Amino acid sequence: MPKILIIEDEATIRRVLGKILAEESDTYIVEEAEDGVQGLEMIKNDDYDLVLCDIKMPKMDGVEVLEAVKKIKSEIPFVMISGHGDLETAIQTMRLGAFDYISKPPDLNRLLNTVRNALDRKVLVVENKRLKKKVSKNYEMVGNSDPINHIKEIIEKVAPTDARVLITGPNGTGKELVAHWLHEKSERSDASFVEVNCAAIPSELIESELFGHVKGAFTSAVKDRAGKFEAAHKGTIFLDEIGDMSLPAQAKVLRALQESMIQRVGADKDIKVDVRVVAATNKDLKKEIEEGRFREDLYHRLAVILVKVPALNDRRDDIPLLINHFTEKIATEQGTVQKQFTDNAVKLLQEYDWTGNIRELRNVIERLIILGGAEISENDVKLFASK
Known about the structure:
Blueprint: E1 3-7, H1 11-24, E2 29-33, H2 36-45, E3 50-54, H3 62-72, E4 78-82, H4 87-95, E5 100-103, H5 108-136, H6 146-158, E6 165-168, H7 175-184, E7 193-197, H8 206-211, H9 228-231, E8 236-240, H10 247-259, E9 261-263, E10 270-272, E11 276-281, H11 285-290, H12 296-302, E12 305-308, H13 319-334, E13 340-341, H14 343-351, H15 357-371, E14 375-376, H16 378-384
Parallel strand pairs: 1-2, 1-3, 3-4, 4-5, 6-11, 6-12, 7-8, 8-11, 13-14
Antiparallel strand pairs: 9-10
Helix pairs in contact: 2-3, 13-15, 14-16
């Protein structure tokens, strides 16, 4: 049942608004506050689906109330109530996050349409947040070992900033997972996360993939095409396996980082982009620099923050948690009952040499679930997880 708060210092206007809403729907719960201070206190202590707020009030005006609420409960839609002389301020409040404004005396149809639309918007915002939390679970970092806790601490500190991050570590350790978590916990999480596997794109196509191209730039360029940097505008671009990028492409990326500008292949016009760059590699970039395969200036641009993801062999204490995580996830994906592992089976898996890291462990767990018994035993591990 939608709960609406009216913050208005004129009792007559409060009564009119309350009556209109009561006649519109008997499902609305309408509460009133006679000034901004009282209204803000009520919002702090209760959950509202919509706030109708006057602009000019004693003690605390509507703009101040709006700004305060957006810091603590940003999902609540605000509809500002403006007098004839407040229209310019009402428009300003929309830049501050207000959903809309209505003028005094309130027009019946406009008020009701605005209220319905604002409540619909609140439902969408809440649903999007719910889905976002659900999506985030796909990128959950599982583990309580010292190396993983250290990475989690770095992410908590770095994610809210725009600092560039270089993630290193062997194949299969979860470098992409770290990149996703940096994005999910950042101020850019509502925008795109765009992934580019630099090793999978031929060197002659990497510039077009990253920066786009104009029609006629090369034989197959039959129309203008935006690149990954433009697609990631206001969001995050993840350059995976950046150690495999060609030197000409590295030069273009360096310029994009230095000037926040890109240029499509075949064009002479600069395009401004606002992108956070996260890169990853399994190579020793300092060695690549010494051998002339990677630009040192690009390395220093990317490696503002360094995150080293450990091999699974260096975090064996996390294997029981990872086993439980993967068995639960696989059971959900396959619609089956989650199988349990005996203590001896878990202990044996902890002793294995995991050259393929997390990726290999996940594959082995799935194999054991498919081929093993109702409970995964030590014997199952010896039979189906052997190297």
